[in-house]
Amino acid sequence: MYSYTDFDEAFVRTRVAQFSEQVRRRIDGSLTEDEFKPLRLMNGLYLQLHAYMLRVAIPYGTLDSRKMRQLAMIAERWDKGYGHFTTRQNIQFNWPKLGDVPEILSALADVGMHAIQTSGNCVRNVTADHFAGAAADEIEDPRPVAELLRQWSTDHPEFQFLPRKFKIAITGSPNDRAVTKSHDIGLRMVRDADGEPGFEVIVGGGLGRTPMIGRVVRDFLPKADLLPYVEAILGVYNELGRRDNKYKARVKILVHETGLEPLREIIEERFIETRAEFGGQDMALLAEIERAFAPPAFRQAPTVAYDDFYREDPVFRAWADTNLARHRNADYAIVTISLKAHGATPGDATAEQMRVMADLAERYGHDELRISHEQNVILPHVHKADLPAIHAALAQAGLATANVGLISDIIACPGMDYCALATARSIPVAQEIATRFDALDLEHEVGPLKIKISGCINACGHHHVGHIGILGLDRAGVENYQITLGGDGTETAAIGEKTGPGFAYDEIVPAVERIVRAYLEIRSEPSETFLDTLRRVGHAPFKAALYEAEGKQDAA
Amino acid sequence: MSRPYIPKVVTANALLEGDVVYLTPDDRWTRHHHEAELIEDEAHAQLRLLHAAARKAEVVGPYLADAKAGPDGPEPVHFREVFRTRGPSNYRHGKQEAAAH
């Protein structure tokens, strides 16, 4: 894992000192809110519906036990004993007091963390495949490149005032778990004809009010050219991106309005300049960073304990079937810890749970933890023999829910329970869907199904790429929920299609149930997933199921 | 005929804690919606908003929110404002927590 250099440490400490002074001046009245707001946003501090919110960056979703324990400490000391993990692999604290924020930032700096560039029109936290460095299908660990991008983009003088925020995601695997096609830049590792790894560069993806699937601007970019090429894209966007209209300022609009081909030419032209300027220093730095991401020394031991438990214990087996993924080392597994206990808030972990996860990572997981964009926590490197002990410890902490990838493993933005921009609540909808399908005992029968819920059109809950997407809106002073079907956030990315009129708050869970029951009836066999069925039969049968009841009511 | 004016309260967030606050008739900031000044005149509402905006060392982002008269004082109209009077629905945090003590 990458550790801060003296330069990083000094930079973060300087920023904490600077912001502490700014907070002091805001409190004593020397700074107005108009003056202070851009400063606090640069340091991840928002003002939400009921309180301030501090968004802390977790670069490429990677943590160790020390960092996780510090997050637990912060949650307990300055917040209400929990934290909320987000779809951008960050953590948000929902209740900090303004005067405490400098101390919180200082405590973060103590463990090499910060809240810089988690807001504002700059390059945000670079996100990565949460199975990076562990996945069986991976070409190479993408995190060294993500760290290189982090260092390059942090306080980059040219890119602090972009037309709009800018999000980069990276994956080293052909199976895209990082939603690369919905980012301003998506980097997907591929090999060239000679087997050399490089990147497919995707540009102009995005969700929000104008959802678009990213376009491939370069089929293959050698790793050595990565930084100059990304800088070329940013430079072109910085210059040509629209600043006249906030809603048309993302790079996706530039791609759409300019056209992919002309834009590619402009980028390639700029790239000739940037490549000449870089001169290889970036590659020397990357080589250094790569050493920090060397794989752990995998343990050689028999896996018989795992096999025995799997055979004998049905609870363990159910958990293993849903929450484990294939590791590059056959004796190991990747554990996804579900932060989606039925009825709980998606992505929330208590301080106590954070400590349990930190302890498990330290004891059994080569001291590594990841946050997934699906708001779960990952132990990327676990020897199979340790899985029964881990499962038992997780169960004690309320963290052993066997639902990863199932209907209750829902992404939900904070919605109107916290967010000042929200138009409706999303958390209670997620809670009720999870509780309902748990009560029906249906979710394992239903199988893989991704529900994603956003409480406004900005789509932080990724509803556009949910197999079932739910968007909460304010319709004439009442919460109303629009459903989309067929979204997909993987390598076969697709934007979901709206089904029709929305549903009231108390109608949305029954509506989802009608869709799911229709699927169970229509699927050709249990192994045909919801998305496969939808792609085979189209939307009509689902719409019929969805609106049938309403039609009857109207006729009555 | 012009439409009747929907009464308003002045609301904001407290600078230090971020708590939702309301402006009272006697120029205090209260945490309780029912203690707010219910403003039934548009021109007066604008004046009260200006007054609130000038108190920048106390509050952040003052605005006028629709309200109506109730038996115990002003009540919120829109669901967003209802949520602001109590806190999130997933935990008993915020005002509802304070009210429970």
Automatic annotation (TrEMBL), chain A:
Parts of the chain that traverse the membrane: none
Presence of keyword Cytoplasm: no
Source domain of life: Bacteria
The Nitrite/Sulfite reductase ferredoxin-like domain, residue ranges: 52-110, 341-396
Domain Nitrite/sulphite reductase 4Fe-4S intervals: 119-271, 410-549
Swiss-Prot/TrEMBL keywords: 4Fe-4S, Heme, Iron, Iron-sulfur, Metal-binding, Oxidoreductase
Gene3D superfamilies: 3.90.480.20, Sulfite Reductase Hemoprotein, domain 1 (3.30.413.10)
Classification via PANTHER family: BLR3264 PROTEIN, FERREDOXIN--NITRITE REDUCTASE, CHLOROPLASTIC
Protein name (database record): Sulfite reductase (NADPH) hemoprotein beta-component
Automatic annotation (TrEMBL), chain B:
Domain of life: Bacteria
Pfam families with a match to the protein in the record: DUF2849
Full protein name: Uncharacterized protein DUF2849
Species of origin: Cereibacter johrii
